[in-house]
Prior knowledge:
Number of helices: 6
Number of strands: 12
Mean pLDDT: 77
Radius of gyration: 32 Å
Oligomer: single chain
Strand order of the largest sheet: 1-2-3-4-5-6-7-8
Shape: globular
Amino acid sequence: MRVLRLVVMMVAVIPLVACSTGNRSRHVSAAISETPGPDLGGRWLGDWTGTGLFPTALREDAVTLNLEQQGNVAHGRLVIQGVIAAEPVPWEIRLAGQSGTRVLAKISRNTVTLRHHIDGRLFTADLKVSDDGNRMVGFVKDSWPRVGLVLTRDQGRKAPEAAAQQAAMAPPAPAPAPEPVTAEPAPQVVAMVTEPKPAEDTARPRQADFVAVHELTAVHFDYDKSDLRPDALDRLQGHIEWLKAHADTAVQIAGHCDERGTAEYNLALGDRRAKSVRDHLSAFGIAPERVSTVSHGKEIPACAANTPQCHEMNRRAEFKVKER
Length: 324
């Protein structure tokens, strides 16, 4: 009877052991099947393509992406240049301007989902990773017309881990062969003769600097804004006609701000204001190579009083020209 009970217990235990072994095997198999995504940490450079204020105004401008990766997740900052006039780009990205937008990236074997760090509904881009892991291509989700992103790894600034691994794997460089030692010849004595200083050529005029012309008056902006107001659009129409009539001139657009805010923030805001005007001129036929931009932030006020009227005067973009 005792032997019979022992046999029954062994029969009951065998399925449990088999089941436990099977579960462990499945866990081990699942762990083995998990493969980490590629190492995409570091700096990425590239372009975005889309349209400007008008669907026919095709645009292409620079993009910078910096990522710090941990496992299959990365965080970093995305800077998209010149998007203040790009309607398809989400407003949160346009508002960030030169300071960039904080993003999160979910990385798989050959795809990357890049999204706004707060909410993916604000900005999401789906990217494909090349086989060598040095190129990402894709589109901004829900953008219309479509906004494309093309990014290439900055080989000079890879992630520190990847650079350290490559340095460790690289074979040591051979020691340079010693250079033969030769006796230096005796120095020659040369008489130094002072050449006469050439007379200054006063007949040739210097290249003219940018100067203001009364036909190109400043346009103004609302507080903390860089989009063009209706009155600015009307004024710029006359500027466009003048620039077309004077095709031999180059124009410089300077962005200015009022005294409120930090110097760094106002420099970025002045840059966005100048580029917003530049993009509008380009959309109406002024060649981009004729136009340059500069930001003075709040450093050169047109009015020094701390009043709403002076603030309005200081929030501006000014124009200067010179012969090309």
